[in-house]
Amino acid sequence: MKRKILIVEDNVSLSQRQKDWFEQAGYDAMTAMNEPAARALIRKHQFDLILSDVRLPEGNGISLLEWLKKEKRDIPFIITTEYVSVPDVVRTIKLGAKDYLPKPVHREHLLELAEEMFRPLATVRTKPKDLFKRTCPKILEVERYARLVAPSDMSVLILGANGTGKESVAQSIHENSGRVGMPFVAVNCSILPRDLAPSMLFGHEKGAFTGADTAKPGFFDMAKGGTLFLDEIGTMSFEIQSMLLRVLQENIYMPIGGQKEKIADVRIVAATNENMERAINEGRFREDLYHRLCEFEIRQPSLAECPGDILPLAEFFRKRFSKELKRDTCGFSDDAIYRLRSYSWPGNVRELQNMVKRAVLLAEIPLLELSDLNIGGQTEHTNEGIAPVVLPLKDENAEKESIINALQACNGHREQSARLLGINPATLYRKMNKYGIK
């Protein structure tokens, strides 16, 4: 059954464009132009996600979120607006919004965030997962830190943007520790229902609340003897933060409705894409809990910081999905390779994986072409959604070739080409004169 998404946006062309993006990605999407229309649809349909602008012709996104909270409708909610207001953002987060997206909202960011929202609450692994061996110096440094901290029972906090592979780092810590062979339980804190989060984390006894017909173990029970990975820890409510702090301080917890305390025999590894200093200053995250979680900190770099990993990862995903989807592919064309290298990958490794998977599925010939990567206009304009990666300019011949390729990719548009190359337009003009490029 398809996930159902409600888009609350008064800009008709924008809401239709976002609706098309979601439907192309396999979701069922509906639109509303104002708050009253949105409420009517919410009463009629069961939505899995709501994407709402703050400013609307009637009502606004914040009052819609307040209404949802009053109605006890726990639907993941994302706020969008082109008028950045820190107080509004803080207020929506406190009301329960899962995230905030400034306009213009780009397709890759939106779909990557939706995928994040729909990830399972928790996954349990008892066997090591095969991980791609990357060679980027920054990744190798991360792996070194993971191996060093693994044998201890120190709490580790992994920082990094969405889609960079923070869970892989947590798995590496688990697999190099004395807890290897025991469960590795990964919990997506960003989608934990607030009312049920305590029982999901710590379990509950029969009769603890309405609907608790039987006793049920929590994630701490499931991870006993192993590692509990708390992803997106920055989204955790203040109430749960306090409960988690007690567990970390005293190493014990009590199931909801229970009378007997349990020993918390788990290694805690947490991760977030939040600026934790800002979250603490804004009162969204407890400083004492932060210090408990961050006995050792690891920062996972973005894919843009590891350009040497892009093509090996793309090839790894091509081979994997060719096998999974039973498609005969043999590599990437030169134009596709150039695009893979020059694109900034705002959605990081997860975006690269998804794009290659779609390309493998849609390819008409074994060699994946640039057009196979051009899904829904994602690569149609080089200036939309791209924070360019500086291309390696090792010598004058390579520099001249890179400039020519950038100009061709941007249809001769010099300012776009400069952004793609990561240099300012004046520098581009000077180099074009130097190499006689017209």
UniProtKB/TrEMBL annotation:
Pfam families from the UniProt entry: AAA_lid_14, HTH_8, Response_reg, Sigma54_activat
Keyword Nucleotide-binding included in the entry's annotation: yes
Residue span, Sigma-54 factor interaction domain: 132-361
Record's protein name: DNA-binding transcriptional response regulator, NtrC family, contains REC, AAA-type ATPase, and a Fis-type DNA-binding domains
GO molecular function: ATP binding; sequence-specific DNA binding
Residue span, Response regulatory domain: 4-118
Native species: Bacteroides faecichinchillae
Stretches that traverse the bilayer: none
Keywords: ATP-binding, DNA-binding, Nucleotide-binding, Phosphoprotein, Transcription, Transcription regulation
Annotated positions of the 4-aspartylphosphate modification: D53
GO biological process, any: regulation of DNA-templated transcription
